[in-house]
Design brief:
Layout lengths: L5 E9 L3 H11 L4 H9 L4 H21 L11 E20 L3 E18 L1
Antiparallel strand pairs: 1-3, 2-3
Length: about 120
């Protein structure tokens, strides 16, 4: 096994704006995986934190699949090396307003990419 093991996972088209998603992502950046899961568990933004918890559990599962003989313990403390939030597709809708007009509603989505590494 190489010295630096990096595992990744991605989450596409989450129906939440990237600006709102980055508020939680900034809290868990460069944290250990268990500490990040605890932060997300007790977060106020339940909808977004549940998506991010599933993503972290997915990247942890990817790590177990790639390195099945290694267990997550103090010897291999995994941390979030990099986590990025980018804007995904935007759904454009029209909301009717008086006098036959329509105002644009833009429903934004996010793409999240996370990289996990052992210290």
């Amino acid at each position: 096994m190489e010295d630096k093991a990096i595992i990744s996972a991605s989450l596409n088209d989450v129906r939440s704006a990237p600006r709102k998603m980055r508020l939680l992502v900034n809290l868990i950046r460069n944290k250990e995986i268990q500490k990040a899961l605890d932060i997300l568990k007790y977060s106020k933004k339940q909808k977004i934190s549940s998506f991010l918890r599933k993503l972290l559990l997915s990247v942890l599962s990817n790590w177990h699949r790639k390195y099945p003989n290694l267990s997550v313990d103090k010897k291999y403390s995994l941390y979030i090396k990099e986590i990025r939030v980018n804007q995904g597709k935007t759904l454009k809708r029209l909301r009717p307003v008086p006098q036959g007009r329509g105002h644009r509603i833009r429903k934004k989505s996010s793409k999240v990419l996370v990289f996990l590494e052992k210290r």
